[in-house]
Amino acid sequence: MVERKDIGSWLSGPDTSNISKFPGERLGLPESGRGSMARAGRRIIALCIDWGLSYLIAAAFFDGHPNAILTIFAAEQILLVGTLGYSIGHRIMGIQVMRLDGGPPGLLAGMVRALLLCLVIPVIIVDADHRGLHDKAMKTILVRR
């Protein structure tokens, strides 16, 4: 027999037992400080720094051609994030890309993340831990340094 507790009620509201208190809690990261999830503000500023540097380089050498800007941006992301774990913008903003197991992302992760980053839409779609589809695809996270 079905009881009221099985069906629930609009008065009880949605089940919130599995909702984390802060981004990164489900991944075992601290709420704030070193090693915590990088928030949107830091990410956006780092992206603007990287894009601005790419624009300056393209303006100096390629007459500011839009494809040159995108190519320089993607190359920076692939090489720097893939090898060091951070781009110039990430470094300035104090954030770093790492795998979920704590290791460096690697060139493949840098390449896939850069490709998806250049497509824009996968970056906009984020989960409760502030991980975009580009991070989820390569099992990476962006944390504070």
TrEMBL record:
<dbReference type="GO" id="GO:0005886">
    <property type="term" value="C:plasma membrane"/>
</dbReference>
<dbReference type="InterPro" id="IPR051791">
    <property type="entry name" value="Pra-immunoreactive"/>
</dbReference>
<keyword id="KW-1003">Cell membrane</keyword>
<dbReference type="InterPro" id="IPR010432">
    <property type="entry name" value="RDD"/>
</dbReference>
<dbReference type="InterPro" id="IPR016795">
    <property type="entry name" value="UCP021697"/>
</dbReference>
<dbReference type="Pfam" id="PF06271">
    <property type="entry name" value="RDD"/>
</dbReference>
<feature type="transmembrane region" description="Helical">
    <location>
        <begin position="44"/>
        <end position="62"/>
    </location>
</feature>
<keyword id="KW-0812">Transmembrane</keyword>
<feature type="transmembrane region" description="Helical">
    <location>
        <begin position="107"/>
        <end position="126"/>
    </location>
</feature>
<feature type="domain" description="RDD">
    <location>
        <begin position="38"/>
        <end position="138"/>
    </location>
</feature>
<protein>
    <submittedName>
        <fullName>RDD family protein</fullName>
    </submittedName>
</protein>
<feature type="transmembrane region" description="Helical">
    <location>
        <begin position="68"/>
        <end position="86"/>
    </location>
</feature>
<keyword id="KW-1133">Transmembrane helix</keyword>
<keyword id="KW-0472">Membrane</keyword>
